[in-house]
């Protein structure tokens, strides 16, 4: 069997109608997959996709590639495996339609056999479209990887091996394997499957074999149960991964196909008295919601970028991710398996009622089972996946029809995989809009905006979510779930312990500004298994929902949660789109009990005393810096986050006072002082005893700095180059941003350049960008093995460069 990446040699451009004349602007351009067709399009305040996508337009796009089909493929089956095409993808070969996949997040196969012309070049084209079909930035095009597969007509299909561990003890585990064999010939075939289980250290620990007879043009499933003695259990702290190697042999004993799949051995339990348990140990979910885009890369999904996101999120204290509001990429699932991060994978944002003009609601009644099967097939072998979410803030959830859909979807998930739990992100207010009154038009989106409604409701929302109306109308939809997900409804946590004593709850979506209140409830209430903040990693679209506005700014006008153009990012992530942790991330780490040292967050002196407007998704715009372009003596507000009774603030060894922690917000001490260059030190004490300290120092002579996260990368990987304006000790000057330009020489190319600035008109394509708080990130992609040099320049400072080796 041949299975190889099918990423090079493509072109992409606007899809022209049959009678449209081409123009220079519509000419196809060479691209390497994965690729986001809309990332570099011209943004505009007039974009009809508006705030949802960050004012990025949509369109219809065509990808094309010519490839040779040799004569010796006549006796093979040839297919393309697409991990995701956004959206409404149609694949053609030599002008003939092969397959249509409406869902932009499903993996799918295109079987090319009937359309190939052997012994000559063949042309494959893929159409994709994105237009007012999402409430966030979806990207467009072939944004996830593609593989070319050339196999025997009798073969193991994509996701053909399913592995579960139904019986797990400390001294022994049963591994149950089911492999599908597909026969595309006209003859019945009897073959033999052999399975080998490989331990995390690479040794073989169990093997089994079975014959399988497959009728013409059909499939058959062969099963085996293998025992693994003294198994290494997969957990958050010790993510041990086993592997199953599968070999399919023909009647003559020759192997005609192989497959390999990683899995973990672990036991899941959940109940209202003991919460969520993994391998018998209670686990509270320190969760982050994440969208699927990769910031400066747009929606293009690279394994290296997904790995980096998961790694940095876990390092920031999260042990669980919710894929919002669509199925997670295979690359991110693999990373979650490796790092020990638990996953709530979500099916969809809509069922049968639309949220935006051209979303998937119209096709959902006819496609839902296909989508469920695609989700489960992708996830079933991943030990990180512990819950399937059947939806998010579903509009019809509180109706009789919505309750029927809830039951139908939950049971379909269980039919496909009964080894995980089923949940749903329920928002009782959204589900009862027709009874509570629809949100006002935001004026920015041109459509009703539930985000604005929730942001303006304040404490009224908590009371509404705890109302008898929500209790009664959502009871049936909640009753079909194993774990009830509540979005912004912590007011139900204690109430439901009395009303529904067997109900298990997870905070499937919560405001970041309230984490200290959320986590107190999670820790105190056994039936509440965790909290998922919105969001762990910042993202494109839903532009400006976490912004901080200064209301005395000329021309300021309230816009609800809709950030006016040129807002691009949501601005609500614990970690910004470049991977840099914002102050809220350190506050959360302290709330989680994972950090004892205090953290210093300084409000920009230039804004001192100015009135602000925020949303429930906002943090403040403080920065951990004591380097400011302010006159000595300028007033400044300093926040210190600490798990302590009190904090003393010192400047160059002189005390600036002692403040109690928690006076106005838990885990925070606030100081009003004056800015003077030097060393600012925070000392945290409990019971009069020092429990931790942290310091900030004013930067010295500032230069241009560049550093690469990994100096050696694989040919299919990415290089991440951090750019900063910093002194010789690495202290960053956050208040002196400037335009920097990036050049890449050698065996790599620049594929993304950006900052965490949420309001910008700069392109991610580079080659230049203005630093934000003194930082930027360049992402390079190898063009082959060898080496590359990344050089960063700016006016008035010496250039900085780093080298990478590509292996």
UniProtKB/TrEMBL annotation:
EC number(s) in its UniProt entry?
Answer: 3.2.1.23
The protein's name: Beta-galactosidase
User: Which residue ranges does the record assign to the Glycosyl hydrolases family 2 sugar binding domain?
Assistant: 62-149
The answer on whether this UniProt entry bears the keyword Hydrolase reads yes
The GO annotation for biological process reads:
carbohydrate metabolic process
Glycoside hydrolase family 2 catalytic domain segment(s): 276-428
Name of the top EC class for this enzyme: hydrolase
Span of the secretion signal?
A: none
Query: Which SUPFAM superfamilies does this chain map to?
Result: (Trans)glycosidases, beta-Galactosidase/glucuronidase domain, Galactose-binding domain-like
Transferase listed as a keyword: no
State the encoding gene: lacZ_1
Q: Taxonomy-wise, where does this protein's organism fall, top ranks first?
A: Bacteria, Bacillati, Actinomycetota, Actinomycetes, Micrococcales
Q: Which family does it belong to?
A: Belongs to the glycosyl hydrolase 2 family.
User: GO molecular-function annotation terms?
Assistant: beta-galactosidase activity
Q: Which residues form the DUF4982 domain?
A: 633-691
Q: What are the protein's UniProt keywords?
A: Glycosidase, Hydrolase
Q: Which residues does the UniProt record annotate as the domain Glycoside hydrolase family?
A: 706-802
Tell me where in this chain the Glycoside hydrolase family 2 immunoglobulin-like beta-sandwich domain is found.
161-266
């Amino acid at each position: 069997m041949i299975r190889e990446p099918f990423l090079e040699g493509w072109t992409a451009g606007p899809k022209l109608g049959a009678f449209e004349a081409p123009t220079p602007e519509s000419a196809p351009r060479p691209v390497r997959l994965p690729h986001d067709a809309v990332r570099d399009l011209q943004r505009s305040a007039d974009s009809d996709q508006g705030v949802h996508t960050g004012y990025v337009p949509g369109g219809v796009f065509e990808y094309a590639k010519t490839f040779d089909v040799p004569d010796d493929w006549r006796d093979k089956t040839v297919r393309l495996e697409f991990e995701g095409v956004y959206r409404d993808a149609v694949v053609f070969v030599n002008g003939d339609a092969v397959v249509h996949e409406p869902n932009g997040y499903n993996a799918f196969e295109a079987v090319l056999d009937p359309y190939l012309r052997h012994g000559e070049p063949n042309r494959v084209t893929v159409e994709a479209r994105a237009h007012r079909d999402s409430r966030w930035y979806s990207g467009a095009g072939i944004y996830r990887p593609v593989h070319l597969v050339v196999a025997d007509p009798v073969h193991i299909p994509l996701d053909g091996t399913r592995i579960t561990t139904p019986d797990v003890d400390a001294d022994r585990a049963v591994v149950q394997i089911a492999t599908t064999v597909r026969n595309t010939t006209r003859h019945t075939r009897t073959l033999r499957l052999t399975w080998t289980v490989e331990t995390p250290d690479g040794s073989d620990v169990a093997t089994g074999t079975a014959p399988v007879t497959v009728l013409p043009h059909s499939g058959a499933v062969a099963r085996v149960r293998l025992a693994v003695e003294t198994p290494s259990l997969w957990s958050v702290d010790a993510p041990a991964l086993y592997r199953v190697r599968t070999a399919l042999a023909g009647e003559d004993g020759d192997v005609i196909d192989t497959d390999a799949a990683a899995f973990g051995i672990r036991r899941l339990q959940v109940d209202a008295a003991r919460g969520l348990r993994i391998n018998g140990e209670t686990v509270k979910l320190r969760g982050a919601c994440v969208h699927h885009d990769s910031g400066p890369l747009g929606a293009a999904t690279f394994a290296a970028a997904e790995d980096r996101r998961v790694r940095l999120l876990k390092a920031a204290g999260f042990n669980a991710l919710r894929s919002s509001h669509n199925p997670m990429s295979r690359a991110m699932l693999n990373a979650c398996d490796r790092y020990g991060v638990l996953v709530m994978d979500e099916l969809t944002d809509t069922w049968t009622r639309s949220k935006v003009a051209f979303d998937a609601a119209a096709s959902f009644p006819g496609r839902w089972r296909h989508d469920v099967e695609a989700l489960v097939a992708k996830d079933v072998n991943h030990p990180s996946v512990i819950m399937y979410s059947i939806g998010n803030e579903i509009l019809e959830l509180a109706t009789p029809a919505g309750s029927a859909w809830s039951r139908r979807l939950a049971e379909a998930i269980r039919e496909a995989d009964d080894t995980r739990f089923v949940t749903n992100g329920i928002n009782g207010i959204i589900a009862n809009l027709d009874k509570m009154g629809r949100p006002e038009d935001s004026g920015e989106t041109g459509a009703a905006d539930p985000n604005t409604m929730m942001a303006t409701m304040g404490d009224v929302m908590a009371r509404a979510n705890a109302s008898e109306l929500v209790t009664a109308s959502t009871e049936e939809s909640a009753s079909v779930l194993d774990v009830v997900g509540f979005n912004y409804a912590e007011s139900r946590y204690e109430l439901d312990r009395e009303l529904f004593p067997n109900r298990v709850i997870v905070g499937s979506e919560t405001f970041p500004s309230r984490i200290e209140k959320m986590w107190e409830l999670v820790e105190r209430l056994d039936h509440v298994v965790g909290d998922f903040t919105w969001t762990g990693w910042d993202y494109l679209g839903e532009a400006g929902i976490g912004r901080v506005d200064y209301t005395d700014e000329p021309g300021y006008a309230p816009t609800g949660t809709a950030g006016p153009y040129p807002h691009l990012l949501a601005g609500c992530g614990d970690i910004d789109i470049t991977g840099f942790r914002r102050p809220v991330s350190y506050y959360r780490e302290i709330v989680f009990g994972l950090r004892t040292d205090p953290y210093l967050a300084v409000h920009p002196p230039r804004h001192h005393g100015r009135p602000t407007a925020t949303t429930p998704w906002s943090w403040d715009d403080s920065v951990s810096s004591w380097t400011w372009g302010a006159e000595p003596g300028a007033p400044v507000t300093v926040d210190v986050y600490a798990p302590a009774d009190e904090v003393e603030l010192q400047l160059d060894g002189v005390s600036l006072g002692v403040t109690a922690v928690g006076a106005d917000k838990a885990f925070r001490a606030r100081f009003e002082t004056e800015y003077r260059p030097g060393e600012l030190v925070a000392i945290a004490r409990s019971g009069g005893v020092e429990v931790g300290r942290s310091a900030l120092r004013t930067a010295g002579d500032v230069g241009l700095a560049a550093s690469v996260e990994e100096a050696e990368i694989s040919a299919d990987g990415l290089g991440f180059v951090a750019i900063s304006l910093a002194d010789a000790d690495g202290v960053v000057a956050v208040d002196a941003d400037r335009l920097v330009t990036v050049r890449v020489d050698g065996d790599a190319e620049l594929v993304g350049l950006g900052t965490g600035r949420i309001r910008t008109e700069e392109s991610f394509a580079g080659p230049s960008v203005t630093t934000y708080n003194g930082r930027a990130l360049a992402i390079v992609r190898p063009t082959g093995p060898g080496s590359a040099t990344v050089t960063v320049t700016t006016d008035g400072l010496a250039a900085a460069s780093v080298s990478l080796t590509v292996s």
